[in-house]
Amino acid sequence: MARLIAISRHRIATDGKGVTTLVAFHGCPLDCRYCLNEQCKGDAHKFSDYTPERLLDEVWIDDLYFQATGGGVTFGGGEPLLHPDFIVKFRRICPPEWKINIESSLAVPTHSLQKVAALVDGMIIDVKDLNNDIYHAYTGRDSHLLMNNLQWIAEAGLQDKCLVRLPLIKGYNTKSNVSRSRIQLAVMGFRHFDEFKYIIK
Ligand code: SF4
Predict the structure, then answer these.
(1) HSE-CB for 180 with a 13 A CA cutoff
(2) Centre of ligand 1 from the C-alpha of residue 32, in Å
(3) Which residues contact 169 (CB under 8 A, 6 or more apart)?
C-alpha cells in the first residue's frame, strides 16, 4: 500500500519512451530549495492509498497505447524508491511488455535501490550536483546515499539503464560545476546525460 499524489496519463517523451503514465508517490527525503513538486511533501491526508492491484486496474486503460508505442509506467514523486516493494509487486503483475521506469534522486539506502534496479527498464536520476557542499546547500542533506548508490550501479554494470539529469540551478551551481559532475559520472561509466536549467518561477 502506498499513498499517491497523481496518476498522469498520456505523457509523450517526457519520462520514458513511447506513451507513459506517470505515477507520483507522496514523500521525499530531500528538501530541495526549488522543489518541483511540493505536494509530495505537503498534507498527505488529501491523497488516496493504492495497492499495486488497484493501480493496475486504473492504468490498464492505456494498455494498447503502452504496447503500441513501447511505453508503460514511470514511477516518480516524491521519491519512488521509498516504496520498492510496491514497484516490485507492480512489475510482477503488469504485462511484461510494459516498460517500467523510475525517476529518482537516489537519496535512499542502497538496499531499496537493489530491490528494483534489475526489474525496471530505465532509471532517470536527478543528481542535483555531485559536489557535496552544493548538494547540501540545495537539498539540505549530505550526498553520501546518492554517491553510494551511483557507485553500486557502476559496480553492477547498470549504467546504460540510466539517464542522469544534471541541472544548472541558479544561485547554487555553475556550468563548470555541472561539467565537473558530468566528468565524474563519465569516469564511473555513465553515458546518458540530460543537462538542463531549472526554471525558477
Ligand atoms: S527530490 Fe524532487 S520531490 Fe524531492 S524535494 Fe527535491 S525536487 Fe522536491
Answers:
(1) 11
(2) 5
(3) 34, 128, 129, 138, 198
According to the model, what pLDDT value does residue 199 have? Answer: 80
Q: Say yes or no to pLDDT of 85 above 90.
A: yes
Q: What is the C-alpha to C-alpha distance for residues 38 and 26, in angstroms, rounded to an integer?
A: 10
* Kind plus residue range of the DSSP H or E element containing 52: helix 52-59
How much of the chain, in percent, has pLDDT values that exceed 70? Answer: 100
What distance in Å separates the CA atoms of residue 113 and residue 104, rounded to the nearest whole number?
10
52-59 vs 84-93: helix axis angle to the nearest 10?
50
CA 28 to centroid of ligand 1, rounded, Å? 6
Contact predicate 74/25, CB 8 Å: no
pTM above threshold 0.85 = yes
pLDDT for 130 beyond 70: yes
Which domains are present in the chain? 2-197 (3.20.20.70)
Rounded to the nearest angstrom, the distance between the alpha carbon of 110 and the centre of ligand 1 is 18
**Nearest CA, atom 3, ligand 1:** 78
**Average model confidence (pLDDT) for the chain?**
96
**Continuous H helices in 60-201:** 63-69, 84-93, 110-116, 132-139, 144-156, 175-187
